[in-house]
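Design review, sub-item: ligand-bound model
Attendees: FS, YL, KQ
YL presented the inputs for the S-adenosylmethionine complex:
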Amino acid sequence: MSLSGRLFAALYDRIGPCADAAGVGELRAQLLAQARGRVLELGAGTGLNLAHYGPAVTSLVLTEPEEPMARRLERHLAESGREAAVVRSAAEALPFPDGSFDTVVATLVLCTVADVERTLAEAARVLVPGGRLLVLEHVRSEDPRTARWQDRLARPWGVVGHGCRPNQDTGALLRASALEIERLEPTRLPGAPITRPGIVAVAVAP
Ligand SMILES: C[S@@+](CC[C@H](N)C(=O)[O-])C[C@H]1O[C@@H](n2cnc3c(N)ncnc32)[C@H](O)[C@@H]1O
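KQ shared the predicted structure:
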């Protein structure tokens, strides 16, 4: 278990609820109101989405590859009183058969996975045809000046954010995937300018 992984999990457990109180929680709630049926969450972190899954969710699987995060996730899951399975797995190689889920959730995780294309292909694979991928993400700025700063600061930010890439055009990667875009809109994200703007997206499995 790496020291940086432990530090990041502890830090995220502290700052995540503050970011949610500043507005991210409302974005989670709006997006996750669309989660239904058998739901898979990718890189669930400390479990900040748990409070937002409604009665339309019939089962919930939370994946998380980082052991310090997974331990905190299990603790918060127990506190929530919700039924869910925690699976230690990277999003690029999901241990589930094709067509296992009606909804896949990826909030603030596509910025960090090692291989976004592979992750989106896996999401498409484990979804039933017509199933939905729900995405909330911070992305590369369309303003060239801001994007240049995101490029300059990408390396130190990646250290602080345990692999987070502030300059990634996740919208373009979603459009290039096998999923069909139902909705892809900019959204206001609170926090550091380097992690703005945000997008919310709904993409449908073929
Ligand atoms: C910024 S946190 C976001 C956590 C959570 N999704 C949320 O909305 O609060 C990024 C998460 O991605 C996880 N992660 C990193 N690499 C991953 C991978 N290859 N597959 C899945 N999750 C990964 C990290 O362990 C961490 O929990």
